[in-house]
Amino acid sequence: MKIEYRLKSVLLKKTFNMTNKIITIFLLGMLILSKNTYAQTLPDLKVSANKRFLQTADGKPFFWLGDTGWLLFSKLTREEAIQYLDDRKAKGFNVIQAMGLHTLNVVNMYGDSALVGKNIAKPKITDGDSFTDEAQYDFWNHVDFVIEQAEKRGIYIGFVPIWGGNVKSGRVSESQARIYAEFLAKRFAKHSNIIWLNGGDIKGSESINIWNVIGNTLREIDKKHLITFHPRGRSSSSEWFHNEKWMDFNMVQSGHRTYAQDTSANEKLHYGEDNWKYINRDYKLRPVLPTIDGEPSYEGIPHGLHDVTQPRWTAAEVRRYGYWSVFAGAFGYTYGQNSVMQMFRTLTNEDTSFGPLEIWSEGMKAEGSGQMQFMKSLLLSKPFFERIPDQSLVAKQGEKYNYILATRGKKYAFLYTYTGRNFTVNLGKIEGNVLKATWYNPRNGEKTIIGSFPNKGTKEFNPPAEPKDGNDWVLILSSNQ
């Protein structure tokens, strides 16, 4: 009896242990499966056939609606990063511009350093990955986590490897840059939602060899993701890298200065607030490359950046920058907000720049951030790849804020006024005998039908409300035939 009991006991223990092993193996398998299928795989981006736009690998138009979240990787916890990404997805953003190394001693919100000894050739790596307890707060695992969360939400990451000032200071050699770029490409090319933004608020002529080393190394290892260069204010990547093999499209930083402030003798281009002029300049270059304003004035930041007593850029003004640049031929637009771009955390924190007036989570609610999606919707509502800038649509042009930007396809045209002044259109520029005219409200996306008329001669249009800065409207002309 005792022998039989012992035999049953041993058998039960073996069965229990075997069951535990099976459950453990099953759970591990599910964990591995969840890791491999966790993130949504986004389609690869490529330059369109006419070299003016971006598209997905299956040929669909991609209108880049970017948000500037430069310190996303270092200043937000995982939970906060998800909160931010959810907000931006809900508002139609599909690209977030963020930097890997803001400084050489950068740490994340969990206190983990990115580098060993401030040496970019020695990224600090913790054994394991972002799904294991002991390694989840590792700097680079945290970056992986945030990229995967963006991927899951259909958002691409415009990844800046290292901010320009770190290179300009002389603390990065070509050999270090090559090793670091290899590390980035091998680690992050696995994600479907990477866009490389070489540079980082710097002129390409400053340490140009290092920027070419980074660009060429990224291209050698990562064959599928797009690469550009984020330049200094009031300049374009085209000034230095237009013909480089690693360049896929140009990026402008039109900057944060007013007309009156843009007087520096050291700057080559003096366009003031006319960011459309940067796009117009790039648009004329050969060979043809797509171009975009990747950093216009940020909502809520002081005019000229550094004097916090200056007026601050408003939602109306960031709308103007968006429509002006896109109608001039840009393939998309990047919005920015002062508190969000630096992920400002507390009003008592002295480690800040440009006088933010609220913490990042409040800055996310800025009026302009919810209005950018209406520009994206408008541009995607008509045949995308045929669109060209065409100022010949405007019969009597104005200056500065009264300038009218016009763009068209074969059977449609868009004209943008920032002030809501009356303006006259040269008709007969698009196909069709009869045109339908509609006002489009950039603040809420609502449309108001004007009527139909013959497509010939000229016609004056009177936007709703009285003329003033910020009374902006888009005139939509479309063929009824």
Automatic annotation (TrEMBL):
The record's annotation in InterPro entries points to: Apiosidase-like_cat_dom, Collagen-bd_put, GH
Which Pfam families does this chain map to? Apiosidase, Collagen_bind_2
Span of the secretion signal?
none
Gene3D superfamilies xref list: Glycosidases
Question: Locate the Apiosidase-like catalytic domain: which residues?
Answer: 48-386
> Which residue ranges does the record assign to the Putative collagen-binding domain?
388-477
- Under which name does UniProt file this protein? Collagenase-like protein with putative collagen-binding domain
Query: What is the native source organism of this protein?
Result: Arcicella aurantiaca
